[in-house]
């Protein structure tokens, strides 16, 4: 996970927690808004229900008149008014799709009651087929359900509007009681003033009185003034006079009451009370709307506060975090560039001998610009400064190592040059002794010393290679591959074990090694052959084979030793690919020299186990791939020079089939021409005889 994501996650976790708590608060506020919204819809329906109660009351009185007189003209106008109110109710009811649970059942009952209203009306229209009590009871059920709904609207309502809703419901109950008194008196006009009717009238009046007292306890002063004004009017006084006459009538007698005057007085009183009810319902609706608007404003303010807080937090996090993340990214990019590009390139450049020139390690490190720009005083700037110091120290250390390596190389070269001078003096003395010696045995001993001196010279050349200096070339002319391999074999101690096989004649006729590379190539093969003869078991031969492929020349050096385990082979091949000069390189100087020369000329050297043999003599095969830059075709002039050069060699070469070639140290033609022919023949014969006696080898086929 990137650092930016981690910082974002670190900032987002508390932010998410704050947003979660704010969301819960907003959810509660939104829930309150929805609740008050439902309450407003319920209150709006309650107002229509109150109006519908008044219309049903009037329709009930008209129905009693129709049943009493048979005249249906008095009810048609009231039915139309009631239907208009019913349609208004149904429209609001349809808009209130998800009422609270405590109102849903009541609304369903009211819906059912209103659907059955048509049946009651048909019964009234039929006249004699229905009783007056049944009609009154049906209308009373509908009114009771509407009143119950108005009472239940106050459940779960906010405190500031709950009392108003209850007061409006009490006002509806008061009006319903007055209407019930009117109906009970009309029933008594058709019959005697029975105790049952008298009891119902008393209960209705008691209900009106109780509702009036409860209303005064709950309602505000303004609402009480509205009610007092309505009950103090002429209609209320006239109705009260008629009610007093009813109460004075003895039970069992007929009421002396004018039906028209009674209906007129009671209807006017109910109308006045209905006006108060409509005022109260409108006041309730306005109060609930005000609460709803307040809740919406609160929800809007809280939402805006949360959004502003969230935006501010994010802005501050971005304002503070972006520079920090940008600085860390710059530091990361710089560290990545230093670790994977700049520092490796600097170290690689320092690996070149003499890369420092005349500069000291400190001067070299000081010239390199800082890895990352460090500005400010915060922790990131301090980290950048520390990283620059680490980068400077790494360059200084690499420069010190390069300086130390150059000094070690100089030591190698100085030791090699000094030993080379001593070896050259020794070889010169041996040459003088060889030129004057006639005894074949002593001449053979001199040639052994001469061979030992050649091996010492190879050791000196190895030190020169380790020190980065080119060793002396074998001569100034080009050499064919066979001559190079013979020269290499002549520089090892157990040269008699070496068997050279030139598999393609073109290596002796058409292809040659560049003069500037011949000495190094002979040195490379000498190290491989020397290593092979040292580990070849029981004096078994070391086979050197050279062949031409389509793109290059491949030379293999095979021994009959115990071989190497896979881990060792992998380590050695890695060393051959990337040579390093250290203590281990000096201990295994031969392979290090091979790797160094191979790196100079693009030669590929690889060791592998020879799995085609038995476990006892499995051995190791060294494969050397010579590119076209090392092996080149001869031009005609070069081919003639090669033929003359090979004819003028101090020793003729043995054929590839020969198992014991004599040691070979090339000498210049000038020195060779100063030697007497008969002395050369004696020296060759002496060496041949000495080798035959010493190792039991067969005599070569030619001089």
Automatic annotation (TrEMBL):
Q: How is this protein annotated for GO cellular component?
A: membrane
| Record's catalysed reaction(s) | ATP + protein L-histidine = ADP + protein N-phospho-L-histidine
Which regions are flagged for Basic and acidic residues bias? 637-652
What's any GO biological process attached to this entry? phosphorelay signal transduction system
Q: What class of enzyme is it?
A: transferase
Q: Extract one GO molecular function annotation from the record.
A: protein histidine kinase activity
Q: Where in the cell is it found?
A: Membrane
Q: Does the keyword Cytoplasm apply?
A: no
Instruction: Give the E.C. number(s).
Output: 2.7.13.3
Q: Where is this region: Disordered?
A: 637-683
Highest taxon of source: Bacteria
Q: What is this protein called?
A: histidine kinase
Per the UniProt record, the source organism is Actinocrispum wychmicini
Record keywords, A-Z = ATP-binding, Kinase, Membrane, Nucleotide-binding, Phosphoprotein, Transferase, Transmembrane, Transmembrane helix, Two-component regulatory system
InterPro entries for this protein: 2C_sensor_his_kinase, HAMP_dom, HATPase_C_sf, HATPase_dom, His_kinase_dom, Nitrate/nitrite_sensing
**Ranges where the Histidine kinase domain occurs:** 521-630
């Amino acid at each position: 996970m990137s650092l930016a994501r981690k910082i974002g996650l670190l900032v987002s976790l508390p932010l998410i927690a704050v947003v979660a708590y704010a969301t819960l608060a907003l959810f509660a506020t939104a829930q309150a808004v929805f609740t008050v919204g439902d309450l407003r819809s319920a209150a709006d329906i309650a107002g229509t229900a109150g109006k519908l109660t008044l219309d049903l009351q009037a329709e009930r009185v008209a129905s009693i008149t129709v049943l009493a007189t048979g005249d249906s003209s008095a009810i048609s106008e009231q039915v139309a008014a009631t239907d208009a109110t019913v349609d208004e109710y149904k429209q609001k009811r349809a808009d209130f799709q998800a009422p609270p649970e405590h109102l849903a059942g009541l609304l369903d009952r009211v819906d059912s009651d209103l659907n059955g209203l048509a049946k009651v009306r048909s019964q009234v229209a039929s006249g004699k087929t229905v009783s007056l009590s049944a009609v009154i009871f049906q209308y009373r059920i509908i009114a009771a359900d509407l009143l119950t709904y108005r009472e239940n609207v106050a459940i779960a309502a906010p405190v500031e509007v709950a009392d108003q809703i209850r007061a409006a419901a009490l006002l509806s109950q008061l009006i319903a009681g007055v209407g019930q008194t009117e109906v009970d008196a009309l029933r008594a006009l058709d019959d005697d003033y029975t105790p049952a009717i008298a009891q119902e009238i008393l209960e209705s009046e008691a209900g009106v009185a109780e509702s009036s007292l409860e209303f005064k306890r709950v309602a505000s002063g303004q609402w009480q003034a509205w009610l007092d004004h309505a009950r103090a009017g002429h209609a209320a006084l006239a109705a009260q006079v008629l009610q007093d006459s009813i109460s004075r009538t003895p039970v069992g007698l007929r009421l002396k009451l004018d039906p028209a005057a009674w209906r007129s007085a009671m209807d006017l009183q109910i109308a006045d009370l209905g006006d108060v009810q409509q005022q109260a319902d409108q006041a309730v609706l306005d109060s609930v709307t005000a609460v709803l608007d307040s809740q919406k404003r609160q929800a809007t303010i809280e939402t805006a506060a949360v959004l502003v807080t969230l935006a501010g937090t994010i802005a501050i996090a971005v304002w503070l975090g972006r520079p920090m993340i940008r600085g860390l990214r710059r530091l990361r990019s710089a560290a990545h560039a230093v670790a994977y590009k700049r520092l490796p390139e600097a170290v690689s450049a320092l690996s070149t001998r003499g890369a420092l020139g005349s500069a000291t390690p400190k001067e070299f490190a000081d010239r390199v610009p800082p890895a990352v720009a460090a500005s400010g005083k915060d922790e990131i700037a301090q980290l950048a400064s520390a990283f620059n110091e680490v980068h400077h120290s790494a360059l200084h250390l690499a420069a010190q190592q390069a300086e130390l390596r150059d000094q070690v190389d100089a030591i190698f070269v100085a030791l090699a040059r000094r030993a080379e001078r001593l070896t050259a003096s020794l070889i010169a003395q041996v040459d003088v002794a060889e030129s004057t010696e006639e005894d074949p045995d002593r001449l053979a001993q001199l040639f052994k010393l001469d061979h030992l001196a050649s091996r010492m010279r190879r050791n000196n050349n190895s030190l020169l290679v380790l020190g980065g200096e080119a060793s002396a070339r074998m001569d100034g002319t080009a050499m064919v591959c066979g001559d190079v391999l013979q020269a290499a074999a002549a520089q090892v101690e157990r040269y008699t074990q070496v068997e050279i096989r030139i598999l393609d004649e073109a290596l002796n006729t058409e292809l040659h090694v560049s003069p500037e590379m011949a000495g190094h190539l002979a040195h490379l093969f000498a190290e491989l052959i020397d290593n092979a003869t040292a580990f070849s078991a029981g004096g078994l031969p070391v086979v050197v084979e050279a062949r031409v492929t389509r793109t290059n020349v491949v030379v293999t050096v095979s021994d009959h030793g115990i071989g190497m385990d896979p881990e060792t082979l992998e380590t050695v091949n890695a060393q051959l690919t990337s040579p390093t000069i250290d203590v281990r390189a000096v201990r295994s100087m031969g392979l290090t020299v091979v790797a160094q020369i191979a790196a100079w000329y693009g030669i590929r050297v690889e060791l592998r186990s020879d799995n085609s043999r038995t476990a006892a003599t499995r051995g190791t095969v060294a494969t050397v791939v010579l590119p076209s830059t090392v092996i080149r075709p001869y031009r005609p002039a070069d081919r003639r020079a090669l033929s003359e050069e090979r004819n003028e060699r101090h020793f003729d070469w043995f054929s590839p089939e020969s198992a014991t070639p004599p040691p070979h140290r090339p000498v210049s033609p000038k020195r060779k021409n100063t030697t007497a022919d008969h002395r050369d023949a004696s020296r060759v014969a002496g060496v041949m005889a000495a080798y035959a006696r010493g190792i039991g080898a067969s005599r070569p086929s030619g001089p």
